[in-house]
Write a structure and sequence with these properties.
By secondary structure, the chain is α+β, with helices and mostly antiparallel strands. 38% of the residues lie in helices and 11% in strands. The strands form four sheets. The protein has a two-stranded antiparallel sheet. It has a two-stranded antiparallel sheet with strand order 2-3. The structure holds protoporphyrin IX containing FE (HEM). The site of protoporphyrin IX containing FE has 23 residues, from α1 and α5.
């Protein structure tokens, strides 16, 4: 679950987000200009794209859901994506509105088995979008090459999503020899870069090295 639940879903929502922002440069510009909007926008994109389309449950006793009788032992597919488009819960559900308060979405399921990564994943996506919006501002998805999964048993993701962008100036000089830098080394490197960018915007990003 940690691997399949944590990787395919996250990859899928990242691809959906980047594709959306590529097609909606005005939304990308707004988020770039005001990063405090990012966490809310990520929740809305989780609602709208619902990468985990549904979860299965087995009824432990006879019950009624809506006007449907369910017998103990019967299996139910709970369509999370459909719930996230419920007009009683979300006005104009077929519109993606980065200003909407979408926190009641069910993209991570609900109850005892609610996703273990439901706090980690939105943070990961917000950090990735923040970096991408800043460092690859002209990233454009090549729609002609987008290949969604042929079937969507659980996760609504993509086989391929080519994109173009202008390569930016490399930030930092991370050696490709030996072990990759640790998290604290990367943080130090980043702080040094930010400080040097403030001091001298022309040479920032070229001086520091961690090997
Ligand atoms: C956007 C990314 C993600 C989405 C949309 C997502 C979605 C889901 C959904 C719908 C479930 C089923 C919940 C239920 O049965 O009620 C689930 C379960 C789970 N997810 Fe995620 N997930 C994501 C990221 C992650 C990450 C990053 C991790 C791990 C670090 C993770 C670990 C798990 C685990 C372990 C479960 C099983 C929980 C249980 O059965 O008690 N997920 N996830």
């Amino acid at each position: 679950m940690l691997l399949s639940g944590g990787v395919d879903t996250s990859t899928a929502i990242i691809a959906h987000c980047l594709r959306y922002l590529s097609a909606h440069p005005e939304a990308a510009a707004e988020l770039r200009g005001n990063e405090s909007l990012l966490p809310g926008a990520v929740e809305e994109m989780l609602r709208y794209f619902s990468p985990g389309t549904g979860v299965a449950r087995t009824a432990v006793h006879d019950t009624v859901i809506g006007d449907v009788e369910v017998k103990a032992g019967e299996r139910i597919l709970v369509a999370l994506g459909a719930a996230n488009s419920d007009p009683h819960e979300f006005g104009h559900p077929d519109e993606l509105d980065i200003h909407r308060d979408a926190r009641r979405h069910l993209a991570f399921g609900a109850g005892l088995h609610r996703c273990l990564g439901s706090f980690l994943a939105p943070r990961e996506v917000a950090i990735l979008l923040s970096e991408t919006l800043r460092r690859l501002p002209d990233l454009r998805v090549d729609e002609s090459g987008v290949r969604p999964y042929e079937v969507i048993p659980l996760v609504s993701g993509f086989r391929a999503m080519p994109a173009t962008f202008t390569p930016g100036r490399k930030l930092g000089l991370i050696s490709t020899d030996g072990l990759p830098p640790t998290r604290s080394e990367r943080d130090l490197l980043r702080s040094a870069e930010l400080a040097s960018a403030e001091a001298d915007p022309d040479t920032a990003g070229t001086a520091s090295a961690i090997t």
